[in-house]
Amino acid sequence: QVQLVESGGGLVQPGGSLRLSCAASGMRFSIYHMGWYRQAPGKQRDLVARITTAGSTNYADSVKGRFTISRDNAKNTVYLQMNSLKPEDTAVYYCNAEGTIYRERYWGQGTQVTVSS
Questions:
Q1: Is 90 exceeded by the pLDDT of residue 87?
Q2: Do the Cβ atoms of 109 and 5 come closer than 8 Å?
Q3: Predicted pLDDT at 82
Q4: CA distance 51 to 34
Q5: Tell me: the pLDDT tens digits for 1-50?
């Protein structure tokens, strides 16, 4: 079965950096668009960044210029490099896979990112 396993979350001071990873298994990774979403307490889950099978990327306005999404199809892994972190980036970050044919979606279990001094 499809599994998405996130890692790399934690506590970081404002202005710091973190790199999230999402390792996929049980799927043909290269034919899935991949994304990172986040959900803060009491708020809805929102798209942070997305990368297509062709490598095109898009970002939420709030993270443009600070976050970078990338993928390594050889390792079945998608990354989110987060720089210049702000307290408002605090949330649970979820990895998402979106099928290109049937548009099925899979989610990881989430990883907590806390930005605080």
A1: yes
A2: yes
A3: 98
A4: 5
A5: 999 999 999 999 999 999 999 999 999 999 999 999 999 999 999 999 99
- d(Cα 93, Cα 45) in Å, to the nearest integer? 9
Residues with Cβ within 8 Å of 33's Cβ and at least 6 positions away in sequence, in order, are: 50, 51, 52, 53, 97, 98, 100
Residue 62 reports pLDDT greater than 90: yes
Share of the chain above pLDDT 90, in %: 98
- Whether 94 contacts 88, CB under 8 Å: no
**Structure token pair of residue 76:** 């079945």
Q: Say if CB 50 and CB 103 are below 8 A apart.
A: no
| DSSP label of 29 | G
Terminal-residue alpha carbon distance, the chain: 40
By residue count, the chain amounts to: 117
* φ/ψ (deg, to 5) at 83: -115, 165
